[in-house]
Q: What sequence folds into this?
């Protein structure tokens, strides 16, 4: 059996986090999902985490620290700068697409 993929999901919408986790479960993905309610919480988990996740999924629009700011922080950290990051958004804003 292959080792599970570790995913860190940062999204302020609890319903979106539930749907994401259910999709992983329904597809029988060999994955674990750790959740953060915003970018700052995701950074806190990354700072103190003993294991770096395989992928981080960031909602672009979050309060306190949005996904773009969180991505910039990840890319500035030497230990995390090559981490795979997926950006999610319901926004069609061209600025958000370019910034991501």
A:
């Amino acid at each position: 059996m292959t080792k599970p993929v570790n995913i860190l999901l940062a999204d302020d919408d609890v319903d979106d986090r539930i749907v994401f986790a259910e999709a992983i479960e329904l597809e029988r993905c060999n994955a674990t999902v750790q959740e953060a309610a915003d970018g700052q919480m995701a950074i806190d988990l990354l700072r103190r985490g003993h294991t770096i996740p395989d992928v981080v999924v960031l909602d672009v629009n979050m309060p306190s620290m949005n996904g773009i700011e969180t991505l910039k922080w990840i890319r500035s950290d030497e230990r995390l700068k090559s981490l795979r990051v997926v950006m999610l958004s319901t926004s069609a804003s061209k600025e958000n697409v370019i910034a991501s």
